[in-house]
Amino acid sequence: MSDIPVRQFPIIWRIKPPEEMERRTLFTAVGQIESRVEPCVFEAFAESLSGVALEQFDGTWVHTGPAFNNDGLESTYIWFNIMTPRTRGTLRYKFRISWRFGRHMFGAQETFDVKIRKRCPPPWYCTDDQDLLASLEPNAYEPTPIELMIENS
User: Fold this and answer.
1) In terms of C-beta density within 10 A (0-12 exposed, 13-18 middle, 19 or more buried), how is residue 34 classed?
2) What is the pLDDT along the chain (153 residues), one digit of tens a residue?
3) Angle ∠(114,120,123) on CA atoms, nearest 5
4) Residue 146, SS3?
5) Phi, then psi, of 152 in degrees rounded to 5
């Protein structure tokens, strides 16, 4: 069996992890690949700044059609729902994603540092981010932010 070369390719982060979070709080990170691909590995790791791995998180993915973004491109979205730990301090979250496109293998790795604090404001998602999350996981967001805006108007 031969080795398959993995070509490095950047991920477009639609929703990045916040810079600061409170302990035991959920946040979501969403990446986009501007093509319809076959995801192979999509996982995130929380590790201390000294490099000790603390926890692993699996991602979820979905293919979207050209009308999803109004940009005429098919895309693959990969997102991670991550619960911060009980301990305080700075954690490094590493996102490792690889995918197959035709006969070629691509991959990306991105790292974000998140400060875990005892008290801090909850993560804030703008309306576009909320709509994206509701579109990706419709069963988790009922009613969606758009439906709430229509109800309240």
Assistant:
1) middle
2) 456 778 898 899 999 999 998 888 888 999 999 889 999 999 999 998 888 888 999 999 998 887 777 777 889 999 999 998 888 889 999 999 999 988 889 999 999 999 988 888 777 777 788 888 888 877 666 555 556 666 666
3) 65
4) helix
5) -80, -10
β-bridge partners, 13:
31
Q: Is 15 helix (H, G, I), strand (E, B) or coil?
A: strand
Helix, strand, or coil here: 98? Answer: strand
Packing angle, helices 127-136 and 145-152, rounded to 10: 120
| Strand ranges, E, within 23-147 | 26-33, 38-48, 53-58, 60-64, 75-83, 89-101, 104-117
Strands in 26-33's sheet, in edge-to-edge order, are 12-15, 26-33, 75-83, 60-64
List CB contacts of 9: < 8 A, sequence separation 6 or more.
33, 106, 107, 108
Determine phi and psi for 131, rounding to 5 degrees. Answer: -65, -40
Q: State yes or no: cis peptide before 123, omega within 30 of 0.
A: no
